[in-house]
Amino acid sequence: MGAKPGGGFDLTCKLAQQSLQDLKIMKEPMRATYMPGGIGAVAMNTVVAQRAADPNVIVAFSGGSLLNIAQGKFGKWTENDVRWVAAVGTDYGSISVGKNAPWKTLGELAAAIKADPAKVPMGGGGTVGSQDWTKAAIFAKKIGVDPKAMRWVSFEGNGEATTALMGGHIQVMFGDVSADEAQLEAGNIRMIAVLADKRLVGKTAGVATAKEQGFDIQWPIIRGFYTGPKVADADYKAWQDAFRKMQGTKEFANLRAQRGLQPFDLTGPELDAFVKKQVGEYRKAAEEFGLVKK
């Protein structure tokens, strides 16, 4: 996996490892190897350059990996240089405000930002070009505000941003649903939109989507696996079959829910098409925001 222990890549690998082995879909033990660097860039380089045909290697990826590929941060490697195996679940982006904020809907927030972007401090994990910044930039563009006019405050991660929101240091946070559920449930923040195609199940079922509120913004943070570009078709199909079998069980659904992920079951050609469409959209956004050259 393309990261240190802990975090989303580790979660993704352990979810698949536990499910495939507990359900006896994989008879051989699966071992996790950590290859941190560049949100998956080091791992992709290792697999493509050194283990391109190895049928026993699958590598975790995330929505962040796809965003970085779109921004050229994986060097010469692109979405066309690996074989996309399976997605095992997804999180979604969210927009939250402080519990005492004057805005109850996304429309009210949009009106305030349009009136004076400098008066609405917003924040999230990462600087310009990060996932959270890009969500905010897309929202700004939707409402006719130049992303450069945003009053953006960068934090190391979602946890720091949430603390700042609760402390009143920022007024709006662009984060992730799973990371923000606990503070939402405790009444410490107010989530006013989820960036999904339709209402989610679980603790955030009562939160309207941005799309419902007239802003068609979707930000799936998928988690899944790919394998080397030269892996034989039979082995590639075997991995797809294994994941499809796993995805069809209640045991896997329960394990996925425990990790705060929503269902997102795509394999093989369907996942390949989704990834290429998603990276294309991210690349277009990156060009519009001046993050990469056209």
What would you say this structure looks like, in words?
- It is a single chain.
- The protein is of the alpha/beta class and 294 residues long.
- The protein has two domains: 7-90 and 221-288, 3-Layer(aba) Sandwich (D-Maltodextrin-Binding Protein, domain 2); 92-194, D-Maltodextrin-Binding Protein, domain 2.
- It is 40% helix and 16% strand.
- The chain has ten helices and seven strands.
- Strands 1, 2, 3, 4, 5, 6 and 7 form a seven-stranded mixed beta sheet that branches.
- Strand 3, helix 5 and strand 4 (152-155) form a beta-alpha-beta unit.
- Helix 3 packs across helix 10.
- The chain starts with 6 loop residues before the first helix and ends in a 6-residue tail after the last helix.
- The model has no long low-confidence stretch (mean pLDDT 92).
List the helices and strands and how they pair.
Layout: H1 7-22, H2 41-50, E1 59-62, H3 63-70, E2 83-98, H4 106-115, E3 122-125, H5 131-142, E4 152-155, H6 158-166, E5 172-176, H7 177-185, E6 189-194, E7 220-227, H8 233-247, H9 250-258, H10 268-288
Parallel strand pairs: 3-4, 3-5
Antiparallel strand pairs: 1-7, 2-5, 2-6, 2-7
Please describe the structure with a list of short key phrases separated by commas or semicolons.
294 residues; alpha/beta; D-Maltodextrin-Binding Protein, domain 2; 2 domains; seven-stranded mixed beta sheet; 10 helices; 7 strands
